[in-house]
């Protein structure tokens, strides 16, 4: 019954995301729910693995973009609480109480963003809770990939 | 087989129903948007004793009038006194569960199909589904992980009797797939159940609970006129003996449980509901976030000691 079919993180707490249309970086594509950053030119593009700068979450798929395309995305705030799956780099990993309160990076796989429990240097998020606790009838501490709720660190959202 | 990747929905969840996500509802060319439905049938509640604790902690124990039988004792001799055994106690801690949903005014006004109200109406069934998750959790963990008032699993081979002089009792069958033989063995075992003093206290089988994988075998066991899976043409003594409850949420594909005729708290399985599922509106500062609703329930599930069940992990 555990929920293990992977998808990009989703908002579960705090204020709703505030949609905004921003210019996409030329030739970059993504799927809804991926996290994005402002590029040097002011356009938005998907974040890189373990990036310490994250600004938006994409609200729609982008199958082919050009420099003249504006795309729906939402600015992330530090009081937004997301839920997402856990990994150590490309490998699925269970979520336990040991992750709570600690800072981790965001791993970027193939159109799939997860909380990288193996990355404690280039950190972007702080884990708030783990699914075996808040969704205790579905997940256990051995469910893999696990799920956690997390918030972005303000320093990551404000990074230039 | 076609590849699903080309059609798989990748949808954002911005924390509210937003017209940028539900683009089909805005499509003027769309002829039909149908309701995928949400069927949640309560299945296991009849096995549980429902209680309504006032606080977040619910503690339950038991007493009994079962005493030792009289012994030979002549008038004038010292009277042979006896006393019932104390019960084991169990504490359940209720937990709050909440979920909320909200929609934007744009979502409502651009919804050409009139479906937004339907989409925000799912919280009550989500609560029912969680309750079913909780109830089946007890059966999913009947052979490991969760212990009852006596410190043993729901189905175990050596439950201590309340009177320890009476030894132990057993409600765990040797793991084997559901068959006429294993069903009969469970039925007989229930009938041989003993009470806290070790006296026979028969439990009459009433309900077979198992998963969908065992539905066919359950039908054969309980509906055949002759003994199934033999060539003896014996009458099927199990025909119509009990009802069947197929639990669609049961994780195990092989486990089967035979429940008896005990009633009330003697059933042993407890559903403690401190807050019944309820909905309340969620007010927002932003007037264009509408239909905010939150669902809440607070409950705990667990068991004390359950002489009413005979369990078999199946494999």
Output the keywords.
heterodimer; A: mainly beta; 5-stranded mixed beta barrel; 5-stranded antiparallel beta sheet; 12 strands; B: 315 residues; alpha+beta; phage-related protein like fold; 4-stranded mixed beta sheet; 5 helices
Task: Kindly estimate the percentage of residues of chain B that lie in beta strands according to DSSP.
Answer: 15-25%
Distance between the termini of chain B: 33 Å
According to DSSP, the number of beta strands of chain B is 12
CATH topology (level 3) name of chain B: phage-related protein like fold
Number of domains of chain B: 1
Given as residue ranges, the uncertain stretches of chain A (5+ residues, pLDDT < 50) are none
Helices of chain B, by number, come to 5
Share of helix of chain A, binned: under 10%
- The CATH architecture assignment of chain B turns out to be Alpha-Beta Complex
Element order, helices and strands of chain A?
Answer: EEEEEEEEEEEHEH
Distance between the termini of chain A: 42 Å
